[in-house]
Amino acid sequence: MADNFNVRLDEVKYYTPDACCKEQSWIGDYNRTYQAFLADPDGFWDGIARELDWFQPWDRVKEWNYPYARWFLNGKLNITHNCLDRHAHSQRRNKVALMWRGEDEGDEQIYTYRQLHQAVCRFANGLKRLGVGKGDRVCIYMPVVPEQVIAMLACARIGAIHSVVFGGFGVNALNQRIRGIEAKVVITADVTYRRGKAIPLKNIVEEAVVSAPSVERIVILRRDTDKPVELHPEMEVDYYDLTEGVDRECPAEPMDAEDPLFILYTSGTTGSPKGIVHTCGGYTVGTYYTTKYVFDVKDSDVYWCTADPGWITGHSYGVYGPLLNGATCLIAEATPDYPDPGTWWNLIEEYGVTIFYTAPTAIRMFMRVGEEWPNRCNLSSLRVLGSVGEPLNPEAFEWYYRTIGKDRCPIVDTWWQTETGMHMLTTMIGEPMRPGFVGKPIPGVVADVVDMEGNSCPPGTGGLLVVKEPWPSMMRTVWNDDERYRKYWNTIPGCYTAADLAVKDKDGYIMVIGRSDDLIVVAGHNIGTAEVESALVSHEAVAEAAVIGKPDAMKGNVIKAFVILKDGRQPGDKLKNDLVYHVRMTLGPIAIPSEIEFVQSLPKTRSGKIMRRVLKAQELGMDPGDISTLEE
Ligand code: 6R9
């Protein structure tokens, strides 16, 4: 827990960006904007919401009935009207909205705002043909292709609630999520391409829907036109056949600000993953605002967020936020080091990317392979660099700043979560940057580092990172499990607890240290210990399992599993491989342990809970802390 760990704060180092980037930025002066927000929080959000199109204005900005908030009460809007129609019916009509790049150079697709509008309307009409309507849940399990974005927007267009599942998840993870939301339709593709290989997705879906009776139809994007996969007509329909002969217009469904927009699953510390619910009004306002002000998006920008829309970063800053701002967005089905570690830098040069948003794990990988790769490319188009997903350590910050940003580009290290929907902490453009520290709450957010009683921690003393006031894009509930929602607000009275440990410096800059719970952040992806453990235990040879995160220079953390075998089962390398394979098949490649140790027993509390903290301390040669609850 948040024991007091003292961080050395005496080696203070700030980077001060060029003054003109502050003068020309949307945010202008951070302190002044923050004070204006504090003086009139509702007025602040009201002003931002007015920059968007609403079918009906709101009566009140917010209603706070702890821990439940409602925002923009009785306001009616549709996020896709704001992402598409607003631009397609203005001088941005022929502006490029979406550029997609596959692994091969020739694989490219480009949509203007007008074209994207039309593609979304057509697919939305296709979904209507299948009987999908407002409030129905649709699962999207696709690779990073334009049709993935189009499917999300088409759902939002007609008021269906989408739930995107990352294409790297396996059968069980997908099945659990489809059943959780009782999806009516699943949208998928025949294959995803990775490192030159076609990886089939359709068969995973077919297995995942077997025990999911809610699913009526599977829509399949057939990418491999040479060998089109066969469709089972009673259930399966081709993506493009569905839009044959449909109208190119599909009016955007007027949605109440508080209607759900999407559900996105995130790993829980115990039990099953949580379906985080975001709503139409607040999420639109929050992602529009942060994309505009944190990244400083202007009409001339070319924006690239490397996250897959299967994660919240891809939702908020790969799709919705940039389209709400009428930006030109690049998406790529590209692995950072395939065919070589120059791929991403080539894309930046080729497309003239100006705003680049990625994760520390990628930055550290590029650091390791050397700066000759980015140095071969002309990266002078870049003007803003972003980071998200895990702490950006000072070494990675400096490398990113010098080698990629050439000492010119501000770095916005953004702290936020699936649950928060939008950026919460960062160093706004123009403010001095402190490597290792994300920065301060953005205007619109009240956050602090506190002890278990909710008292503000003095500078240098670690505590829990909390948010003290509601914000528009906060999650509204956990799908079908409101109890778990209330937990976020009940741990520390009056505060939203993010389960991250943090420390502040004397200037109020916040350093995020890591999770205070049993989530393991591997390469920027949250993985619940519970999920990996239950996958291991579902193997016939395993009696019990416990997993921990082990610090890793590249991935932030890797997973180590401790496994007790059933009587009579022999440990060995073959079994280790079997277990890794088993986890890969059930949860997907992102959750596989990189180390497995066979043990005779596991440290447990008297109530039978595995003390992962003790395992971790042993593993890392640290003091395990209080072990008074440890069983004999
Ligand atoms: C957006 C996203 C959330 C968790 C969060 C924290 C970690 C995210 C961070 C960061 C340090 C940053 N995290 N951004 N840690 N610095 N800039 O990643 O959402 O997948 O829900 O993960 O990721 O631990 O609590 P999500």
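Confidence is low (pLDDT under 50) at residues 1-7.
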